[in-house]
Amino acid sequence: MNWVIRKSNKILYHTHLNEILEPIIDEVKNYNWILADIEHGGSLVELPINMDEEYCILTPDKFDVILKADVQFYWGVILGIPANKNITIDENNIPFAEGNEFIWKNDNIQYPDAEIEIVCFDSGYTIVKFKSEPLSNQFRAYFPEAIELEKLLD
Predict the structure, then answer these.
(1) How far apart are alpha carbons 62 and 110 in whole angstroms?
(2) How far apart are CA 54 and CA 37, in angstroms?
(3) pTM score, two decimals?
């Protein structure tokens, strides 16, 4: 339930969240979101992200602003946590992408309660991990070109 998108005609660029989350877009409103270690560009609208901070926590409504913006994420980690769970970040263990060898490991999601992890890797790869098999199956049905993470590493 770990996927990598390297090339796809369904996305304009890595990592365009509205396109990446299209197969599960109806589920997105059920999650709060952690965005950490983010580098982005291209948005013409103000995003609810404070770039002076190492991470931010977004409600579904604030995350929707990002989905509607035309923004490219170059680096970073985006985590979906069920809305009924409290989010507490360990300041000594903030999720990150660049230089993190564990993003390439199956089933390694950087926040314990997260059910979705999206890793933006240098504008060239989008890694998407799911704890939910039905969500993973929806994603894979929409993106048959997605590569299983473990096969990419072989």
Answers:
(1) 22
(2) 6
(3) 0.95
